[in-house]
Structures are given as structure tokens and as C-alpha cells.
Amino acid sequence: MLHDFRRVDFSFWRTLVEDEQRARLEALRELLAGWAELETRGEGHSRVYAVLGHKADLLFLHFRKSFDALLDAQFALNRIPAGDLFPPAYGYYSVVELGSHTGDPSSDPKLMAELYPTPPKDGYVVFYPMSKKRSEDENWYWMPQEERARMMRSHGEIGRKYAGTILQVVGGSQGLDDWEWSVTLFADDPIAFKKIVYEMRFDEASARYGLFGPFFVGRALDETNLKNIFGI
């Protein structure tokens, strides 16, 4: 799973004549159509989001079955004529995983759907990286496995309360990126993100051991909304 955050270089955009602008948007449209075709073949998913705030402008979110396929998605955007409009802002690589305290996905269709999620095509998204505390006083990895399992069961009970309202996707990134996990939430109302994160702040696993990185919140874009960003 790749969270590819980009800025939009509007200064460069304004230097382009109308034909050049339209050519770049057409190249982007063709790229998005190619990603959609890839999805129909069962080879992955790609979504684009407008990001609120100043950490990034757009999120290109990719789910693929291999590292190399994610590389292809990343560089495909860079190669097209529109690629020079989207300098990198931030990126995060992780592998979708289930908690070690869950069951066997091969015998549980619900767990299999969590391991190979289909992100919604509309609505809102929030992404944030996180780690578990490793200090002299509070070290998650020194805890007995049974104690960690107990806390994660309690943690999971909160998440299950939001089933049907929030789709939760957790990625492991130990040895792959700067934090230990990525968390990506999807919902029809961004206020749902605030509610679940706030409630989990009081959960023992988060309150004692949770360390959190930056939060990025965005809204899904279709072709029309993407053009509206550029005033076309």
C-alpha cells in the first residue's frame, strides 16, 4: 500500500497556455483510466483525494499485490506530461496486515476482506502513521504476549463499534518506513474520524503505548472534481 502525497504546482500551471493545460489533464485522465482498468482485472486499486490543509494537496492512494507494482504506480504519475505539476509532498509505504491477535484469514471470509480491502470510490479518508512506545518505563515489546493480546482485544472492540460507518485499513511498516504502522480510515463523514480517534485515546493500548505521526484528511475526487481544482 502506497500513500503518495503530492503538491499541485499552481505557479507552473499558470504559465501554461490553455492547450498545454488541457493536454496535461488529458494525460492524467488516461492514467486514471488505466488504473481503473487494472482494478477490473483484480490487480489492485487506486484512488485520488484532495487533501485539506497545507501538508499536501493531493493523495494518490495505491493498493497493489507487490512492491514492484507500487513502484510502477508511483513512476507512472511522474512520467506523464502532467507529472511535473505534482511534486512530492510526503509518502508512506506499508503492507496491509491483520493483527497478530486475530484469527486465520484463509478460513474467515471477513478477515480475508480486511486483508485485501476495496477502498470506497467516494467519501473521505484520513491517514496517519503510528508506533508503539519503547521507553524504559513503558515498552510495548517487553510486555507478555498475553497482556498485549488483552489490550488489543479491547482496542479492537472500539473499532468494531464503528463497523458500517468507518472502513479501517492497517498496514505494517516495521523496517519499511519511519513508523511501525499506517492507519487509513474511510467514511462518509470526516467527523467520524474525530470520534473514533478520540474514543481510542482513552483505550489502554493507545493511552499508554500509542505514538502518532501527522494526520492527513482528504475527500475522494472523480474526474469532474479533479478538473474543478484547476478551474476547468
Description:
The protein is of the alpha+beta class. The protein has 2 domains: 2-94, Apc35880, domain 1 (Alpha-Beta Plaits); 95-217, Apc35880, domain 1 (Alpha-Beta Plaits, 2-Layer Sandwich). The chain has 8 helices and 10 strands. It has helices at residues 10-15, 18-40, 67-79, 109-115, 145-161, 191-201, 204-209, 223-229; strands at residues 2-6, 44-51, 58-64, 88-93, 95-96, 124-132, 166-172, 181-187, 210-212, 216-220. Strands 1, 2, 3, 4, 5, 6, 7, 8, 9 and 10 form a 10-stranded antiparallel beta sheet that branches. The longest helix has 23 residues, at 18-40. It is elongated.
Key phrases:
single chain; 232 residues; alpha+beta; Alpha-Beta Plaits; 2 domains; ten-stranded antiparallel β-sheet; 25% strand; elongated
Structure in a nutshell:
It is an enzyme of class 1 (oxidoreductase). The chain has eight helices and ten strands.
| Sheet with the most strands, sense and barrel status | 10 strands, antiparallel
Structural class: alpha+beta
CATH fold name of the largest domain, please? Alpha-Beta Plaits
Question: What is the name of the CATH class of the largest domain?
Answer: Alpha Beta
What value does the average pLDDT take? 93
Which percent bin holds the helix content?
25-40%
- Work out the strand percent: 25-35%
According to CATH, the homologous superfamily of the largest domain is Apc35880, domain 1
Number of domains: 2
Write down the overall geometry: elongated
Radius of gyration: 19 Å
Continuous helix count: 8
Q: Can you write the helix and strand succession as a string?
A: EHHEEHEEHEHEEHHEEH
pLDDT under 50 segments (min length 5)?
Answer: none
| Overall strand count | 10
Compute the separation of the termini in Å.
Answer: 31 Å
CATH architectural group of the largest domain: 2-Layer Sandwich
Cofactor: Fe-coproporphyrin III
GO molecular function: heme binding; metal ion binding; oxidoreductase activity
Catalytic activity: Fe-coproporphyrin III + 2 H2O2 + 2 H(+) = heme b + 2 CO2 + 4 H2O
Protein name: Coproheme decarboxylase
